[in-house]
Amino acid sequence: MDPYKRFYQADDSGISVEHWTGSMSQDAHMHKYYELVFIEKGSCTHTFCKEDTLLLPGDSFLVRPETSHSFAIHEQTSIYNCQFYPEVLDEQFFSLVKELKADARGTQVLEKTPTSFQADINNQGIVHLDPNERMFLLSILGGMQKAQEKQESYYELLKRKYLELILIIYRKRSDQQFKNYYSQPKQNQTIIMRTLAYIEENIAEPIDFNELARDENLSTNHFRKLFKDVTGLAPVEYINRLRITKACEHLQHSNLSMSEIAANVGIYDQNYFSRLFKNFMGCSPRHYIRRSKE
User: Fold this and answer.
1) Where is the HTH araC/xylS-type domain (predicted)?
2) Which long-range contacts (C-beta less than 8 Å, at least 24 apart) are formed by 106-111?
3) CATH number of the structural domain spanning residue 77
4) How many domains does the chain have?
5) Residue 102 domain-assigned?
6) What would the pLDDT profile of 141-180 be if each residue is shown by its tens digit?
7) Which residue range is the domain that position 264 belongs to?
8) Strand, helix or coil at 81?
9) Residue range 188-211, pLDDT digits in tens
10) 2 in a structural domain
11) What is the distance between the terminal CA atoms of the chain, rounded to a whole angstrom?
12) What is the pTM of this model?
């Protein structure tokens, strides 16, 4: 059994926030409390029941008690961990957590999730926040951390109110991301699942979303909106995430040259590949190789 990680008890509120910055990976562990994780900067691979998912800035997910998971940090990464025990919340706000059904793998996702593909953030119940949501969440986490450090009058009440606001933001985005999929007619779900399968199989080739839309007899704008409703990501975000995910696999497990790896993920300009990789991962491909071998 994996070891339990202690609760960061800065006070007696049953709520804590940690802002962690570093490059040290976290081995598999469990908690006896809930943990909401938010990636501020950098990147890491989240391992969960033998499944690996690349986490990038703006990604967030909720880990329930007794759930084993680990992180492989690729470069200097900034992560917020908001930990709490369920009894600190009244029923109205705890229901925001309770109503998220745990799937067979243990993540806090809705009762069903779309078919799994390699870059599908729905695979581990990851919620991806847009830039405005990220800034708002960071301001709340910063306020909670300040209250925790100063411990001035009513700070425990203030921390609980910050947590309630965080859960509302998380639940709202989760509902939008996951429920948009289930609100789609079966035909629309099938269209996007077919598109994801095509992208997965043809990642080394140029992907023309205008052509994919025409093949499905849809306008480009409607197709792009439908794609984001189902996957939680815009088409370009999704395909770039998939390219970098597959590039990481090649870097770790093959002896291909950098130009060959770039070509295998559909990028034929090595300089652009290096820039895109660093933008996602926070480090160059060569530095990533060195880190993965340490």
Assistant:
1) 193-291
2) 106/48, 106/49, 106/64, 106/67, 106/68, 107/48, 107/61, 107/62, 107/63, 107/64, 107/67, 108/61, 108/62, 108/63, 108/64, 109/178, 110/174, 110/178, 110/179, 110/182
3) 2.60.120.280
4) 2
5) yes
6) 999 999 999 999 999 999 999 999 999 998 888 877 777 7
7) 186-293
8) strand
9) 888 988 999 899 999 999 999 999
10) no
11) 25
12) 0.77
The answer as to whether 114 is a domain residue is: yes
Structure tokens at 68: 């084993």
Is residue 104's pLDDT more than 70?
no
- Residue 20 three-state SS: strand
Q: Who has greater pLDDT, 152 or 229?
A: 152
Among residues 11, 96, 15, 93, the alpha carbon closest in space to that of 62 is found at 96
